[in-house]
UniProtKB/TrEMBL annotation:
CC terms in the record's Gene Ontology section: endomembrane system; plasma membrane
Homology family: Belongs to the complex I subunit 2 family.
Compartmental location: Cell membrane; Endomembrane system; Membrane
Protein function: NDH-1 shuttles electrons from NADH, via FMN and iron-sulfur (Fe-S) centers, to quinones in the respiratory chain. The immediate electron acceptor for the enzyme in this species is believed to be a menaquinone. Couples the redox reaction to proton translocation (for every two electrons transferred, four hydrogen ions are translocated across the cytoplasmic membrane), and thus conserves the redox energy in a proton gradient.
Catalytic reactions of this protein: a quinone + NADH + 5 H(+)(in) = a quinol + NAD(+) + 4 H(+)(out)
Bilayer disposition of the protein: Multi-pass membrane protein
Taxonomic lineage of the native organism: Bacteria, Pseudomonadati, Bacteroidota, Sphingobacteriia, Sphingobacteriales
Pfam families for this protein: Proton_antipo_M (PF00361)
Designated name of the protein: NADH-quinone oxidoreductase subunit N
Length: 495
């Protein structure tokens, strides 16, 4: 009778000892519940109250993360070794918080519907899931976190659908996501059957993989990768991406294209770091599967973007192409995370800025089509100059952040190739360079239409500056300054 109560006491002690280190998650949980309460109330100032509450919750969570970063110099394993608080989880959670604050403010000025409070709540819940993704070392925790982010994303897309196309996009997103989640969960169950544990960083897990069935382990790895591939829009589970990007409200598209990719990338990195660089057969399956996915995503994404006439669909395929670069970083990043941190920051700033520009132009022209930008460079010079700079950053042209980010990626890959002489690494390097050249053709299509094509003289376009204009200008300035002085980002990461 004494033994069970002793075990319960140990579990309770572990939980109580872990709670002080998840204060950011607790703050976001309370904020989410308060937003749900506000959503059922009536009043003209509900929108402003929701914004203030969301920003307050994110601000307090960010402050708690900053405090953890100041106090914590080593890693902490919480909740029976399922949750890791370390330098990686704290830094990337802070980055996620920063971009979520930006998107929350963007949503406030972009959407005027009564449903805005629900969007704030979903952004907070998704951020909570992304925090968990950055810290997870356990497959059950990982699956719960991915599903939290996924369900919030499905709701954001579907809740604001106004026509048949948007509803179809939301249904495709949810059904395709549910299928990929089921496949991933089956892969996790196969891994558990071979190892007897769900903690993918534990020695027992690694030993179980080494001693298990090669065929079963290979299937498990491939099935788990499908779950990550869906969230990162990798080929071949990318089919939802263009329709969802086009059909969702632009602020939701900006969110899906940027912030969740940071969290899922870190989670995938933790898995690769724990499992890939060992002497066992399964490490080759994982690494070469990622190489194939990276090559396919880079080539298919960039080539498909060439023929797009809709700006949001073009950015969807661009996002797929950038996923291939992110996988390269996951494969080649070692102890120093500065390249990884910098690239994700550069990508997210430029992507959010581009979608804000597309949103502003859609409000002015009533269209997402690129040919609706004919001649608008002369009528909206500030907007299109910023738009062009952000696109140029995504293309990787100096001296912007995107150029430095891609330079860091290729430098890391070249170091690995020099050390190993691996053909797949060389193939990734060549493909990354060639697809960067390909991307120039579709990124520069937009400034070409805006500045060098003649539009209809009768088209009346307001040049009134709004809060979203200001956001685009600020993001453009950051893209330039942090590209010319990248050490600012490195100093923030290492601080």
């Amino acid at each position: 009778m004494f033994q069970p109560s002793s075990a319960v006491a140990l579990v309770l002690d572990d939980i109580l000892g872990s709670l002080p280190w998840i204060l950011p998650e607790i703050v976001l949980s309370v904020t989410f519940l308060l937003l749900l309460v506000i959503s059922i109330l009536k009043g003209e100032k509900k929108k402003q109250i929701g914004l203030c509450l969301s920003l307050l919750g994110l601000g307090i969570a960010g402050y708690q993360l900053f405090q953890q970063n100041s106090m914590n110099s080593s890693e902490l394993l919480l909740f029976a070794n399922t949750y890791k608080v370390d330098n990686i989880s704290i830094k990337y959670s802070l980055l996620i918080t920063l971009f979520t604050v930006l998107l929350t403010i963007y949503a406030y000025f972009s959407l005027t519907k009564e449903k805005l409070i629900e969007l704030f709540a979903l952004l907070i819940a998704a951020t909570l899931g992304m925090y968990a993704l950055c810290s997870s070392t356990h497959w059950l925790m990982t699956f719960i976190a991915i599903e939290t982010v996924s369900l919030c994303s499905y709701a954001m897309v579907g809740y604001f659908s106004n026509n048949r196309f948007e509803t179809e996009a939301a249904m495709k997103y949810a059904l395709f996501g549910a299928t990929c989640s089921a496949i991933m969960l089956y892969g996790i169950s196969l891994a558990y059957a071979q190892t007897g544990t769900l903690n993918f960083t534990s020695p027992e897990y690694l030993m179980g993989l080494a001693e298990g069935s090669n065929a079963m382990i290979s299937v498990s790895i491939l099935f788990i990768l499908i779950g990550f591939a869906f969230k990162l829009s990798m080929i071949p589970v990318h089919f939802w991406t263009p329709d969802v990007y086009q059909g969702a409200p632009t602020v939701v598209t900006a969110f899906i294209a940027s912030v969740p990719k940071i969290a899922v990338s870190i989670m995938l990195f933790r898995w690769v770091e724990a499992n890939a660089y060992t002497a066992y057969m399964y490490s080759d399956v994982l690494v070469y599967s990622l190489v194939i996915l990276s090559l396919a995503s880079m080539w298919a994404g960039n080539l498909a973007a060439l023929v797009q006439s809709n700006a949001k669909r073009l950015m969807a395929y661009s996002s797929i192409g950038h996923t291939g670069i992110i996988i390269m970083l996951i494969l080649f990043t070692r102890d120093q995370h500065n390249s990884f941190f910098y690239y994700l920051t550069a990508y997210s700033i430029a992507t959010i800025g581009v979608f804000i520009a597309i949103d502003v132009l859609e409000n002015k022209t009533g269209s997402q089509e690129i040919n609706s930008y004919y001649g608008l460079g002369a009528k909206l010079p500030v907007l299109f100059i910023c738009f062009t700079i952000l696109l140029t950053s995504l293309a990787g042209i100096p001296p912007l952040m995107g150029f430095v980010g891609k330079l860091l990626v290729f430098s890391e890959a070249f170091k690995v190739y020099q050390y190993t002489g691996d053909v797949s690494t060389l193939l990734l390097l060549i493909s990354g360079a060639l697809t960067t050249v390909v991307s120039l053709f579709y990124y520069f299509k937009i400034p070409l239409y805006a500045f060098l094509k003649q539009g209809s003289g009768s088209q009346q376009i307001s040049n009134k500056h709004t809060a979203l204009y200001t956001a685009i200008i600020i993001l453009t300035i950051f893209t330039i300054i942090l590209g010319v002085f990248p050490q600012i980002v490195f100093n923030i990461y290492f601080k």
